[in-house]
């Protein structure tokens, strides 16, 4: 049986349809990412799966128990790191950990093996108040607190938001090690680069799951020719490319524009066209799609479908 299953979950807050017919499953020992921007519905799904909120429609089970009927059993078997406010800021590192161990009827010593790798990094600061820790340290402490009762399933809601790049990398390495111990992990993130670190991902937007698959299969599902293009005046370039007859779509991507064309083209052909239109410092190369390209493509198609309904 899967560690998490959600089937046709919907939830509205007044007029806001936070989740619309969401289904997914996560296996034991799987690292599953819920990838989407702010307001996509990620926290709402986490709250339903961790038994803190009731869905309007649909069914879910976690660690073998249905979320409504057996919520008490689930609470003993899951670890939850909510996006914000999971630590007591005016308790020390050690006091926070002891507190979470005590409410689950266990001790730090009993489950030390599971948190050891992570805890050794914050142990030198064990008497420091949680409120005085750096973002990366807070995140490690919150993860230790979520793990202290040896959960079967771990829910991590945007654990790396507001954390520096080095700590983010370390955090994902820790998740890989936890997964190898058989724990099922559902992690949400708005960062598309983190999607690559998951076994499977679901792309979510406006409460709807756009697609679920492995990052590699999602990337290769993008079949249109794609180019990264740069020139001196990015805004004019965006406008110019949008008007070109060979363009399917063009979207800003860091310092480059990602241009998807109707047919395969020689990059020289595009460069010549831009030369003729008076652009300077043109750089162009053919590229493979990233998860973000796939996300933007799917979300645009979904918005068009919704608008024409
Ligand atoms: N308790 C609530 N009352 C009213 N609206 C809510 C409530 N909780 C969430 N929403 C709305 O539901 C939608 C989904 O919110 P949710 O918090 O699940 O998104 P998210 O993907 O986790 O993004 P964020 O990172 O911004 O929390 C948003 O439009 C949000 O404003």
From TrEMBL:
Q: In the UniProt record, does the keyword Transmembrane occur?
A: no
SUPFAM superfamilies for this protein: P-loop containing nucleoside triphosphate hydrolases
List residues of the ABC transporter domain: 4-231
Citing just one GO molecular function, the answer is: ATP binding
User: What are the UniProt keywords, alphabetically?
Assistant: ATP-binding, Nodulation, Nucleotide-binding, Transport
Q: Does the keyword Phosphoprotein apply?
A: no
The UniProt entry's sequence similarity note says: Belongs to the ABC transporter superfamily.
Q: Which PANTHER family match?
A: ABC TRANSPORTER ATP-BINDING PROTEIN, ABC TRANSPORTER ATP-BINDING PROTEIN NATA
Record protein name field = ABC transporter ATP-binding protein
Q: Which organism is it from?
A: Pelagihabitans pacificus
């Amino acid at each position: 049986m899967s560690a998490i299953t959600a089937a046709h979950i919907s939830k509205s807050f007044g007029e806001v349809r936070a989740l619309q017919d969401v289904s997914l499953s996560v296996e034991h020992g799987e690292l599953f990412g819920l990838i989407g921007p702010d307001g996509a519905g990620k926290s709402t799904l986490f709250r339903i799966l961790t038994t803190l909120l009731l869905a309007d429609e649909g069914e879910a089970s976690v660690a073998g128990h249905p979320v409504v009927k057996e919520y008490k059993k689930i609470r003993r078997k899951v670890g939850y790191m909510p996006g914000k406010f999971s630590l007591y800021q005016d308790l020390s590192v050690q006091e926070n950990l002891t507190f979470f161990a005590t409410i689950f009827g266990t001790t730090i010593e009993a489950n030390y093996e599971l948190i050891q790798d992570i805890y050794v990094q914050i142990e030198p600061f064990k008497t420091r108040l949680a409120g005085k820790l750096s973002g990366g340290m807070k995140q490690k402490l919150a993860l230790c607190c979520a793990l202290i009762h040896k959960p079967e399933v771990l829910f991590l809601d945007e654990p790396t938001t507001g954390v520096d790049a080095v700590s983010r990398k370390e955090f994902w390495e820790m998740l890989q090690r936890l997964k190898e111990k058989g724990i099922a992990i559902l992690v949400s993130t708005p960062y598309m680069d983190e999607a690559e670190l998951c076994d499977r991902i679901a792309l979510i937007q406006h409460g709807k799951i756009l697609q679920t698959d492995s990052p590699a299969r999602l990337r290769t599902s993008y079949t249109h020719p794609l180019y990264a293009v740069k020139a001196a005046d990015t805004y004019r370039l965006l406008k110019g490319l949008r008007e070109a007859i060979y363009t399917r779509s063009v979207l800003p991507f860091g310092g480059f524009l990602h241009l998807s064309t109707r047919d395969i083209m020689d990059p020289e052909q595009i460069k010549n066209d831009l030369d003729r239109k008076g652009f300077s410092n043109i750089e162009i190369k053919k590229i493979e799609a990233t998860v973000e390209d796939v996300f933007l493509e799917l979300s645009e198609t979904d918005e068009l479908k919704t608008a024409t309904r």
